[in-house]
Amino acid sequence: MLERIEKIEAEASAAIEAAVDTTELEELRVRHLGRKAELTGILRGIAELPAEERGRVGGGANRARKALEELLERRAGELDATELEQRLAADTVDVTLPGAPALPAGHLHLITRTTRQIEDVMIGLGYHVVEGPEVEHDYYNFTALNHPPGHPARMLQDTFYIQSHPEVLLRTHTSPVQIRAMETQGPPIFVIVPGKVYRRDSDATHSPMFHQVEGLAIGEGITLADLQGTLEELLRAIFGAGREARMRPHFFPFTEPSVEFDVSCFQCEGSGELAGGERCNLCKGQGWIEVGGAGMVDPNVLGFVAANGYDPERVQGFAFGMGVERIAMLRHAVPDLRRFFDNDVRMLEQFS
Question: Per-residue pLDDT tens for 88-136?
């Protein structure tokens, strides 16, 4: 029996040393050390041997099994290293080639693109882009913008207040940055203020969070005519050449006089009718589309920053604001403002 064990070990060792790959090596392991291997059968049958042979046969079989296991482990390491070198030599990769297939490139969200377009137009007119905090103090959001204590905008049904700090809120417009900008820079000042704002509204044309762009121009001799020209230039750049801007009387606490401004309809060219004689569905037959609010900065507002050189007797200017979502909805015929925030790729990919 010991001679047979030695012969099994010798044959298995020779075969293992001659194995050319890990697949063949695994077959040899099963053949010589698997459940049906001869050596495994010898170990299982030791209990049936005479007592005087059990020790010698068991010891010899265990020694042979251990020797073969060690040889298999060593040979597996050698073959793994060899096969890895062969794969590295054969599987060369040109890292300068594009992926196959190429991954689709992302793109800016439509709101971001619209905001940047407005910024680019205003930068071309000599304005600077400034930003401010979205969590704002009551002073900047209301008081310094000429909102009296009982103004409806201050009420809980319109504004998100921080519960533990009643003087702190989520800003309801980007106008607080007007005050912050004038506190850090004397006149003349020409700034554009993009950013998120928050109000308690939610429907097809309103969202609790939306984006505004605010413009502010303060200096000597600035008039409503300058506001008209600025709005026309901006709206033509956004909606196309030939657009006209119209201003209508309105009221805002921080401007006096105040106006709302419209752009001539770019779908019906201001006629109110489409080619077939049907009423224009975009402007509802009016020929004009409401875009935003504006006006001359109220002297009371300038009074809060008079120490920085904004003497209402010497300088004056205008401010205007518009919702970015509304501009994007008009330009791209998006029927529901909420589609901008649904993250539906089918909708967003239309504007790649």
Answer: 778 777 777 776 666 667 788 999 999 999 999 999 999 999 999 999 9
d(CA 22, CA 213): 67
Residue 207 pLDDT exceeds 90: no
CA nearest to 297, candidates 171, 153, 179:
179
Q: Half-sphere exposure of residue 170, counting CA atoms within 13 Å on the CB side?
A: 15
Whether the pLDDT of residue 5 is over 90: the answer is no
What is d(CA 196, CA 177) in angstroms, rounded to the nearest whole number?
A: 12
Mean pLDDT of 288-297: 93
The span from the CA of 95 to the CA of 210, in Å, is 43
Q: For residue 245, which phi and psi values (nearest 5 degrees)?
A: -110, 135
Amino acid at position 203, single letter: D
Query: Using CA atoms, how far apart are residues 123 and 337, in angstroms rounded to an integer?
Result: 27
For 175-185, what is each residue's pLDDT tens digit?
999 999 999 99
Q: Rounded to an integer, what distance in angstroms lies between the CA atom of residue 237 and that of residue 34?
A: 80
Its pTM surpasses 0.85: no
How far apart are the C-alpha atoms of 188 and 181, rounded to whole Å?
11
Residue ranges per domain, the chain?
Answer: 2-90, 110-351
Tokens of 275: 């080619």
Could you tell me the strand order of the sheet in which 161-162 lies? 135-137, 165-170, 161-162
Query: Alpha-carbon distance 151 to 146, whole Å?
Result: 10
Q: Which fold has domain 110-351?
A: BirA Bifunctional Protein; domain 2 (3.30.930)
Report the amino acid identity of residue 10: A
- Closest by CA to 290, choosing from 266, 262, 269, is 262
Quick check: 277 and 296 in contact, CB under 8 A?
A: no
- Asked if residue 171 lies in contact with residue 141, where contact means CB atoms within 8 angstroms, the answer is yes
